[in-house]
Amino acid sequence: MASARPARRKTCDDSARAAFKHDSHADADEQVSGERYFCEALALLPVATLMLDERGLMTVVNPQASRLFGYERDELVGKPVELLVHALRFDSHAPRWADPLAMPQVRGLAPLDDLCACRKDGTEFHAEIDLCAFCFDGGNVTLAFVIDKTERYELCRQRQDLAHLTRVSTMGQLASSLAHELNQPLTAILSNVQAAQRFMTADPIDLAELRDILNDIVQDDYRASEVIRRIRAVVKKGDLEVVPLDLAGVMRDVVALVHSDAIVRGTRVTLDIDTALPPVRGDRVQLQQVMLNLLLNAFDAMNEVPPVDRTVCVTLKSADKGMVLIAVRDRGHGLTADKLDKIFKPFFTSKPQGLGLGLSISRSIIDMHRGRLWAENNNDRGATFYVALPAGDATTEDKSR
Ligand code: ADP
Q1: pLDDT, tens digit, for every residue of 223-282?
Q2: Closest C-alpha residue for ligand 1 atom 16
Q3: What is the DSSP code string of 4-58?
Q4: What is the atom index within ligand 1 of the atom nearest the CA of 353?
Q5: Is the CB of 327 under 6 A from ligand 1?
Q6: What is the gyration radius of the CA atoms in the chain, in angstroms?
Q7: Does 340 contact ligand 1 (Cβ within 6 A)?
């Protein structure tokens, strides 16, 4: 009776062999050494890499992948890849992937940007996975390159937090003028209500007058809630929302937000907007933050200028190559040659109370929108800050975030 052979431990080479099945004896040696080189090459890759067969079973796991997921290699070989990344599930009734994006039949690379991956200890992390499918000896195999996005994700979150912090701090500068702006409709509402109370005691009651008063109260209430809406829109904290935006509307909101501050500083703001301005794709809150920063900087730059000259001209127009151009032009002290370089660096400020973060954050926001932010001195006086953003759907910024 033949004695039962002890089960051999599956090795990287065995697994590769299974995936690289080959019938010809003549080619077997060459095949085996090819497989070994291949496995060794995978082991040398700096990226966690899994090789999967047609059913999504892991046939090769390189050391970086074992480390990343916290498993021994042998614990993974032969197991379905969905154990590590649930979204990479496959249909057990058919020898193909359930997720069409991940189908091994698809030759070439199919990147999966933000998937949830799970370690052996149950902790989860954000992963980017590139699938590379190819045919070998009549069978399909897929290489999955797994990148841990935790750090990138964390960096992005910190950048968002910092942007939020500077937004809140900018709004702090506007606090007193906004309080004043809010106070106006509230005071008007109070005096209108008192007037209405007086009218009610008259006999006969003047209903027409009463109706006018109530209309005024409604209008003032709208004014007050508009102020609050604009404040909330800027200090809002949340995930980036990239949507088609009407830049003109965004800019009008920001100009309205600084309206009372402009009055206090004796500054005039003019708005010149192209009637046929195309939409841009972007995050409203972040673009508002950029515009707000440019406007307040322009106000600051004109502090020493006689009030008659304190004007900021904002223009929005279509530009070449499918871009939309925003220009914020002031008549302030302008920028010396050395400042033109430095102002976009973090923590550069010439203001006693300045943080020096506004322009560097603004530039990174515009970069993320695949746009450009730069400054030039005007020929006569002051400086102009330009923002160029791609119009329409030209941006595909989701990856860059
Ligand atoms: P902060 O406003 O806190 O100083 P910013 O990054 O917004 O931070 O601005 C950095 C510096 O750039 C300002 O301190 C100022 O020296 C310069 N700057 C910005 N805008 C203008 C402008 N419109 N005209 C002249 N200088 C400017």
Answers
A1: 999 889 888 888 887 777 889 999 999 999 999 999 989 998 999 999 999 988 999 999
A2: 350
A3: PPPPPPP-HHHHHHHHT----STTHHHHHHHHHHHHHHHHH-SSEEEEE-TTSBE
A4: 3
A5: no
A6: 32
A7: no
Q: What percent of the chain has pLDDT over 70?
A: 83
Over residues 172-224, the pLDDT tens digits come to 888 888 888 899 899 999 999 999 999 899 888 889 999 999 999 999 999 99
User: Could you give the CA distance from residue 57 to residue 389 in angstroms, rounded to a whole number?
Assistant: 45
pTM (2 d.p.): 0.67
Report the helix count and the strand count for the chain, using DSSP H and E: 11, 14
C-beta of 185 in contact with ligand 1 (< 6 A): no
Whether 301 lines ligand 1, by a CB cut-off of 6 Å, is yes
**Does ligand 1 come within 6 angstroms of the Cβ of 355?**
yes
Residue nearest to atom 14 of ligand 1 (CA): 349
Q: Which of 343, 345, 362, 373 to mutate to test the pocket of ligand 1 (most atoms within 8 A of CB)?
A: 343
- Give 388's contacts (C-beta < 8 A, 6+ positions apart): 319, 323, 324, 325, 326, 371, 372, 373
**Strands, DSSP E only, in 253-371?**
268-273, 280-282, 311-319, 323-329
Q: Is the pLDDT of residue 55 over 50?
A: yes
Domains by residue range for the chain, with CATH: 27-148 (3.30.450.20), 154-394 (3.30.565.10)
